């Protein structure tokens, strides 16, 4: 009985701290929390998707994220060096799933972060979570190596 009361109390404290953090601090925009990542990537929305992604001659890596997502925040500093390394060969962009729900639905994004690589409208790679980064690097090397 004592353990149950203790477990409920711990849960209640955790829930209260989460709710307070969301309402008092609120989620931070990428540009505020990670300006280097924001300046290296392009913000893609439902409105500018065609002009940026489909018009690109280079492969485009879309990072589907949410401002509320702690795993997305972990991925950003890890994705930054990859984006800088492949800046000449690929375009790196980010899509906020709350602000661009049509794109999230189009690519069947069920969890964030999700990385999707597209070239000329064709999905070359799609994976979710932190583990997506290592497989993305392999997919980038395949997609950007010179043909011949």
Protein model, in words:
This is Thioredoxin domain-containing protein. InterPro entries: Thioredoxin-like_sf, Thioredoxin_domain. Keywords: Signal. It contains seven helices and five strands, in the order H-H-H-E-H-E-H-E-H-E-E-H. With about 150 residues, the protein is an alpha/beta fold. The chain has one domain: 3-Layer(aba) Sandwich (Glutaredoxin), CATH 3.40.30.10. It has a five-stranded mixed β-sheet. Strand 2, helix 5 and strand 3 form a beta-alpha-beta unit. It is elongated, with a radius of gyration of 18 Å.
Radius of gyration: 18 Å
Q: What portion of the residues fall into strands of 2 or more residues?
A: 15-25%
Q: Measure the end-to-end span.
A: 71 Å
Q: What would the CATH topology be? A: Glutaredoxin
- What's the helix-strand series? HHHEHEHEHEEH
Total number of helical segments?
7
Please report the first level of CATH classification, the CATH class.
Alpha Beta
Helical fraction equals: 40-55%
């Amino acid at each position: 009985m004592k353990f149950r009361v203790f477990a409920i109390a711990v849960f209640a404290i955790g829930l209260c701290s989460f709710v307070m953090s969301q309402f008092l601090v609120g989620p931070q925009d990428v540009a505020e929390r990670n300006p280097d990542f924001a300046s290296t990537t392009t913000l893609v929305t439902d409105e500018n998707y065609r002009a940026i992604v489909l018009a690109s001659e280079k492969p485009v890596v879309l990072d589907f994220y949410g401002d509320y997502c702690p795993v997305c925040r972990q991925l950003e500093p890890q994705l930054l060096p990859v984006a800088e390394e492949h800046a000449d060969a690929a375009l790196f962009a980010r899509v906020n799933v709350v602000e661009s729900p049509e794109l999230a639905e189009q690519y069947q994004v069920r969890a964030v972060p999700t990385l999707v690589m597209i070239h000329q409208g064709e999905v070359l790679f799609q994976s979710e979570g932190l583990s997506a980064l290592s497989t993305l690097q392999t997919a980038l090397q395949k997609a950007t190596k010179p043909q011949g």
